[in-house]
Automatic annotation (TrEMBL):
Gene3D superfamilies: Hypothetical protein MTH538. The lineage of its organism: Bacteria, Pseudomonadati, Pseudomonadota, Betaproteobacteria, Neisseriales. Residues 7-100 form the Thoeris protein ThsB TIR-like domain. It holds the Pfam family ThsB_TIR. This is Thoeris protein ThsB TIR-like domain-containing protein. It comes from the Bacteria. It comes from Chitiniphilus shinanonensis.
Length: 159
């Protein structure tokens, strides 16, 4: 099966090490990781530069995967990416990543579902993007074994 290009949305400072684990699974085509130095350069350039960076990196992606850590729901750029994904009719899903072990921080507290801040409508019907919460005892393998199917399902829901 061909790998689907996706955009990962997450809180960089808290979750980048957990996100790297998911990217390295190789199950789907994710955007190339941005280094901390590159992200800091983009952030210092102001909000219009961040928005251009998001636009450029999301451009050909079919799905946005929100990787939900402890503070992800409160991040303004994650909220922007969620709105943009929905408006542009991209697949959209969330995965709780609190049970993935970060080499620096271990596991973290489960984050609030960032989709709860939005009202998603498909025509006149209110819908909810799927959010997955892998079991804590085997979160890595659960994500690895299901990620491609979750992405394909999210895309199918939007087409």
């Amino acid at each position: 099966m061909a790998r689907v290009p996706v955009f990962y949305s997450f809180h960089f400072d808290n979750d980048v090490m957990r996100v790297q684990q998911i990217r390295q699974m190789g199950m789907i085509d994710g955007d190339e990781p941005v280094s901390k130095n590159d992200w800091e350069t983009v952030k210092r350039s102001g909000s219009s530069a961040i928005e251009r960076w998001i636009d450029a990196n999301m451009k050909y992606k079919r799905c946005v995967v929100v990787l939900i850590g402890t503070e992800t729901h409160a991040r303004p750029w994650v909220q922007h990416e969620i709105r943009k994904a929905w408006t542009e009719n991209r697949g959209l899903l969330g995965i709780h990543i609190h049970s993935l072990r970060c080499p620096n921080q271990g596991i973290c507290a489960k984050g609030i579902n960032p989709f709860d801040q939005f009202e998603f409508r498909d025509g006149g019907t209110i819908v909810r993007p799927p959010v997955y919460d892998p079991p804590s005892h085997d979160a890595y393998n659960h994500i690895k074994n299901n990620l491609a199917a979750w992405v394909n399902d999210a895309i199918a829901r939007r087409t």
